Amino acid sequence: MSIIRINAITVPAEAGDELAHRFAARAGAVDGQDGFEGFELLKPTDGRDQWLVITRWRDEDAFNAWVGSPAFADGHRGTAGANGAQGGHPGGAQGGHPGGHPGGHPGAEGAQPPMSVASEIWSYEPVVSAEPKH
């Protein structure tokens, strides 16, 4: 059964459009990763400042392989979370962006600063799900 990782990213309201732009620019970056099943970026519509990055994985090993991959490191450089952890802890600790957060690359030409002011990973597995009947 799939596992779900939700990265709750706190983003200042004025930075939301830029966050969405950065995710769109990196769309597909994780598609070829073994065990990756899907991704969504959810924009808050109720006045909150937390955006949700929802990823689905075949299993914990597939997710951990992504977090440990060079592609993950490349896409997450400069995205240290509120506690300064680069890459974060896949088990749910605060810091970093293991759910899939495209960030800046400080020191690189065209560097972009990180968008978030805080990040927290939530770990879930589906217990009940439903698909529409056709």
Could you explain how this protein is built, in words?
It is a single chain. The longest helix has 10 residues, at 16-25. The two termini are 23 Å apart. By secondary structure, the protein is an alpha+beta fold. It is globular and about 40 Å long. β2 and β3 (50-57) form a beta hairpin. The chain has 3 helices and 4 strands; from the N terminus they run βαββααβ.
Number of strands: 4
Instruction: Output mean pLDDT.
Output: 78
Q: What percent of residues are in strands?
A: 15-25%
**What is the spatial order of strands in the main beta sheet?**
2-3-1-4
Low-pLDDT runs of 5+ residues are 79-109
Broad structural category? alpha+beta
Name the helicity range.
10-25%
**CA gyration radius, whole angstroms:** 15 Å
Question: Order of helices and strands, N to C?
Answer: EHEEHHE
Distance between the termini: 23 Å
Please, what is the oligomeric state?
Answer: single chain
Give the number of helices: 3
The main pleated sheet reads as: 4 strands, antiparallel
Strand and helix map with partners:
Elements: E1 3-10, H1 16-25, E2 36-42, E3 50-57, H2 60-67, H3 70-76, E4 118-124
Antiparallel strand pairs: 1-3, 1-4, 2-3
List key phrases describing it.
single chain, 134 residues, alpha+beta, 3 helices, 4 strands, 19% helix, 22% strand, globular
In short:
The protein has 134 residues and is α+β, with helices and mostly antiparallel strands.
